[in-house]
Specification:
Oligomer: heterodimer
Structural class of chain A: alpha/beta
Number of domains of chain B: 2
Distance between the termini of chain B: 57 Å
Shape of chain B: elongated
Radius of gyration of chain A: 18 Å
Helix content of chain A: 25-40%
Order of helices and strands of chain B: HHHEEEE
Structural class of chain B: alpha+beta
Strand order of the largest sheet of chain B: 1-4
CATH class of chain A: Alpha Beta
Largest sheet of chain A: 8 strands, mixed
Number of strands of chain B: 4
Largest interface: A-B, 16 and 13 residues
CATH architecture of chain A: 3-Layer(aba) Sandwich
Number of domains of chain A: 1
């Protein structure tokens, strides 16, 4: 039985694509057959984060325009052969894919995959409607910043009016700022959004490093964000995983930096 | 003493995360108050149902709206009463 999850946020730059890539690789690492669908037509990046940018031949737009079927547009991941990317076009715009086109493609794909993750563009216009239409549930990604939380609330309102179950991922948490009261904490975010949280991802330099390399951080053993994403994957799979307290940099860690190790 | 000094120099003694929380609570109250005419109609009908237990009201002249001002959102209802029902005195 397949599950279709849209990853959305409202605001741009909060980590939708990063979250999609990490969940996709993470679920594939757990043996699931996964398709990642990029719907950010004109501004595609999921291919880059997965290291698949040079292997794209056909796109979602070719599928919509019936030049090829979706199977011909799928790009198989090199390392995780049960992970596939359905890329979108970098030259077309959001009007190239109508919501009903998307719905029929997703429905056709359902029988073949355990999980289909749809990476939604920023905004609440047609691109959002297209990304959301075929989804069984939604993951809303936000950051502990006032503008990102407000936009998340708007998106949550829209998803609730379509009766989609919603889970929250809070990205780029800086534990040292939360500790000294200069960043919104999880209690405040829960109070405001009232959505079940399945991910608290610490800000981690390795996320940039991993994007540079096209290898999502969920594979990286020494990355706090990667470890948090592995927990998100477990929760998506229905496991009961408690949230671990963040390690703020203590005296000894700082000492290690000073002495270079 | 520190608080007094902070006040003197105009800086807030609240942490910025608390300021953000309060500002979000307010701004979302306004954002969410932008509700559809259908929902407003439902609220109106429910209010009529409740009030009609106690008094006769003029449904056609009833007005209900959400009003925003600088720091609050209010549900304002203007409900003309045509007569009181007797049985409420017996309760």
């Amino acid at each position: 039985m397949s599950e279709v999850i849209v990853i959305t946020s409202g605001k741009g730059g909060v980590g939708k694509t990063t979250t999609t890539a990490n969940l996709g690789v993470g679920l594939a690492m757990r043996g699931k057959k996964v398709a990642l669908v990029d719907t950010d037509t004109g501004l595609r990046n999921l291919d880059l984060l997965l290291g698949l940018e040079r292997r794209i031949v056909y796109t979602l737009v070719d599928v919509v325009q019936k030049r090829v079927n979706y199977g011909q547009a799928l790009v198989r991941h090199k390392k995780y052969t049960n992970l596939f990317l359905l890329p979108t076009s970098q030259v077309a715009d959001k009007t190239a894919i109508e919501p009903h086109d998307m719905l029929s493609i997703i429905d056709a794909m359902r029988s073949e995959f355990d999980y289909i993750l749809v990476d939604c563009p920023a905004g609440i216009e047609q691109g959002f409607q297209t990304a959301v239409i075929g989804a069984d549930k939604a993951i809303v990604v936000t950051m502990p910043e006032i503008a990102a939380v407000r936009d998340a609330d708007k998106i949550i309102g829209k998803l609730q009016s379509e009766d989609k179950p919603i889970r929250l991922v809070v990205n780029r948490i800086r534990p040292e700022m939360v500790k000294d009261g200069t960043m919104l904490d999880m209690t405040s975010i829960d109070d405001i959004l009232s959505v079940e949280c399945i991910g608290q991802i610490p800000d981690d330099k390795k996320v940039v490093d991993s994007a540079n390399r096209g290898i999502p951080v969920v594979e990286w053993k020494d990355s706090p964000a990667g470890s948090a994403y592995r927990d998100v994957v477990g929760r998506v799979l229905g496991e009961d995983i408690p949230f671990k307290p963040f390690e703020t940099e203590g005296f000894f860690a700082r000492l290690k930096h000073v002495f270079g190790h | 003493m520190l608080d007094a000094l902070k006040k003197l120099f105009g800086s807030s003694s609240y942490k910025s995360s608390e300021v953000a929380h309060q500002r979000l609570k307010f701004v979302l109250l306004n954002d969410r108050a932008n509700i559809s005419p259908e929902i407003m109609e439902n609220i109106k009908n429910d209010i009529i149902k409740v009030i009609s237990h106690y008094m006769e009201i003029d449904k056609n002249l009833m007005e209900i709206s959400l009003e925003n001002d600088a720091d609050s959102v209010a549900l304002v209802a203007n409900i003309p009463v045509s007569s009181m029902k007797h049985h409420i005195h017996k309760r």
